[in-house]
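Quarterly update, task 2.4: nicotinamide-adenine-dinucleotide-bound model.
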Amino acid sequence: MKSSEAAQFYFSRAADQLELKESMRRRLIIPRREIQVQVSFETDKGEVATYVGYRVQHNNARGPMKGGFRYHPQVDLDEIRSLAALMTLKTAVVNIPYGGAKGGIAVDPRTLSRTEKERITRKFIDQIHDVIGPDIDIPAPDMGTDAETMAWIMSQYNKYHGFNPGVVTGKPVEYYGIPGREEATGRGVGILTLKVLGRLGRKPQQSRVAIQGFGNVGSHAAKYLADAECKVVAVSDVSGAYYRAEGLDVMSAIRYSNQNKNSLAGYKEAEKIPGDQLLELDVDVLIPAALGGVINESNVDRIKAPIIIEAANEPVRPEADEILAKKGTLLLPDILANAGGVTVSYFEWAQNRQFYHWNLDRVRQELERVMSQAFESVWNLSRERKVSLRTAAFMVGIERVAKATALIGVA
Ligand code: NAD
């Protein structure tokens, strides 16, 4: 199943539950606009390099469209289309006034110098500045892009349209960003993991957690859960997985990775195990926080964790999702679990437009409030309708977007 087929599969399952009309299904599935552009720039050697850039603007019924820009060699239109649709539902599930979009360039950022990355970013904005904007479509960081990339986007957009800090979120705190944006996705994952444990009557102190991916999302989720006294027994990154039955010292692993070019390679305070084995550990909670499609038909039978929190986007393939559901695994879906980042992006955008700053405590407090409300609505609907949390989350999202779409009409 292709990425967009997977999103449509979940969409249809929830739309059936809602008895959504065929005409509305088509309006919600077909993206408003798909943009594909040539991005040519001058390399450090003075040569011309050319790549393909994409932006899919899926839906704006509930507000300006919102979603990340990723730089990754495997970026393609199908994946961007599916992630854009998921953004529409994600912003609706957490009930922030946005639609959904996604974009990126099919380039390996590791092959670019910092100056090349700046030039390719500015050229990309030259191509699409007319179709983004604080009231239209607001990009954010994603794989291969970061706060600095967002600063370049704002600066380039401003050359055409004047001062507009709200055109992009995830900016550096020193340059119209907001404290707490960097930790937001991982923190949101942590907040909701504790909620799930609470609902199941499990104590954090007795909960063993394994986290795949130790980047932005994985490391912040690990820190939050360790602070809450969960036992984070394993974490992994591209270098492999690191296991300690009594629980890792998460802060020491974070410090090690920070001082080692964001890699755990050589970390000695845990046993090194093969990367894939982390997913199959006998733990209470498994948090895939790296790549899409890591739990699939080939390994689902060996997944033992009774609780899975989807911190990454689309880490579980639909084929595996069905098998896990039959096994009784409780799965918190990506469109809810990792919505903390876009939620704090919304706070950043709102404050850019008001020229008003919140401090870190306020950001954390508001994040907790938004995530908790979204969790309650999804959890309760799941219990009421006897559907999975994924179907319930899709139902909450689809219903909100469909209502707004119907109110707009087609005139
Ligand atoms: P990141 O680049 O900061 O970190 C990714 C981590 O995954 C790194 O530690 C990397 O070494 C590791 N990794 C890569 N391949 C791996 C493999 N095969 N096995 C184990 N680890 C591997 O990225 P991030 O921002 O933390 O994003 C992680 C996931 O969360 C992505 O799917 C992203 O789309 C999703 N997400 C991120 C945000 C956000 O705000 N950053 C928001 C929503 C969703």
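Highlight for this quarter: The chain has a mean pLDDT of 96.
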